[in-house]
Structure formats: structure tokens, C-alpha cells
Structure prediction request, 110 residues.
Amino acid sequence: MTTPFINDMFSVVYKAFNNLYPDKKCEIQWVPDNFEENDEECYGCTDFQDDGTVLVCVSALIPVKDAVEVLAHELAHVAVGIANEHNKQWEDAFEAIFVEYNRLSEKLFM
Prediction:
């Protein structure tokens, strides 16, 4: 699958994730709603399924610029696994994806 956008931020964040964590796999999809977790509205989720597959969902209701960060957030969950929810290991993965995204973006968008 290719993108028609020459500056597709979602492709770049996914490439950043793949560069850093080539052994981690997931499927990603847009969903038509926001999510609710612990009585709070959220915009993405990562579902670690019993068969070992991982599904990342991002709300299609949020602005594109925010959705890119939500995707990076969820990909950090994929990178570190279900046991590392928002801990230091997750924070490090999220930061690494952000740094790699910026590195790739400099090359592609400048």
C-alpha cells in the first residue's frame, strides 16, 4: 500500500516505529468514535489480543496533527508490550519514536 501524500505524517511515524522496533508488528485502523477509559475520553487504544496479534485504533474524529501523536503514543505501547503501560520504558519508547520521526521528517519535508 502506498500513500498519495508526499508528506504523509502517519507513514513517517510508522516508519520511525519500524526503524526502531523492526520485530514488533501490529495492524492499525481508524475508528469512527473516541474511546472511554476510566470515565475519561481518549483517542486511541492498543489491543493485545490473545492470539498474539496487536491492533492499534485511532479515532477519526480528532484533528490530523493530534492523530499523529496519538498513533505514536499507541505505537510506543506496541514497542514495550502490555506490561509497561505509561512507565519509564514506555516513556523512553515514545521519546525514541518522536526523535526518529523528527529525524525522518527533516529529510523528507525540508
